[in-house]
Design a protein that fits this description.
It is a single chain. The chain is an alpha/beta fold. Helix content is 26%, strand content 29%. It contains five helices and eight strands; from the N terminus they run αβαβββαβαβββα. Helix 2 runs antiparallel to helix 4 (114-124). The radius of gyration is 20 Å and the shape is globular.
């Protein structure tokens, strides 16, 4: 079987595939997962998993590694959230930030102690993009890039604010008038 092919015969038969959709005993969103789960493509997923363990306290949930050492699919858990990942597959155009020359996505991690997690990430090899500071919207946050080019904003919520308070602070920082085009 080639990468990208269905592993089950049922994939090609729409009537058989539909039965999966009506099976009440299977939860459409598995326990422990959220509606949106990040899936990272990496050049060197095994090393990235170790980095995420050191930087963010990630726990390995699953690793499907081929005889060639390539990771076809893996999952880690950071706090209560799963992050899926795999090695790049150039022939399918599954490329990570290193191969694409950057990323257009940032991941946000909420934690109880952002200062400690930020320092831990830097010590593990992350690069600071934006230093830790208290934000106008009630979070303390800073941003790092991992060695594979993925951007991570690390935050602790430090203040509950109404939308009006956030709007007022935003206007105080950036002005009342929207920029003209």
């Amino acid at each position: 079987m080639n990468l990208g092919e269905c592993a089950l015969d049922e994939c090609s038969d729409s009537e058989k595939a539909k039965r999966w959709l009506v099976n009440d005993s299977v939860k459409p969103v598995p326990d422990g997962y959220h509606t949106v789960t990040p899936y990272l493509l990496l050049r060197g997923a095994a090393a990235a998993m170790e980095f995420y363990r050191k930087a963010f306290g990630a726990e390995e949930v699953l690793r499907l590694q081929g005889p060639d050492g390539m990771i076809g699919h893996a999952e880690i858990r950071i706090g209560n959230s799963h992050v899926m990942m795999a090695d790049e597959v150039p022939e399918m155009d599954y490329l990570g930030p290193q191969s694409r020359g950057g990323t257009t996505v940032s991941l946000l991690v909420y934690t109880e102690d952002v200062d400690a997690l930020f320092d831990q990430a830097i010590a593990a090899g992350a690069t600071e993009l934006k230093p830790l500071c208290d934000q106008f919207y009630g979070d303390r946050s800073g941003t790092v890039t991992d060695p594979w080019g993925h951007i991570w904003t690390l935050s602790t919520h430090i203040e509950d604010l109404t939308q009006e308070e956030v709007d007022r602070r935003f206007r105080e920082l950036f002005g009342d008038e929207p920029a003209s085009e």
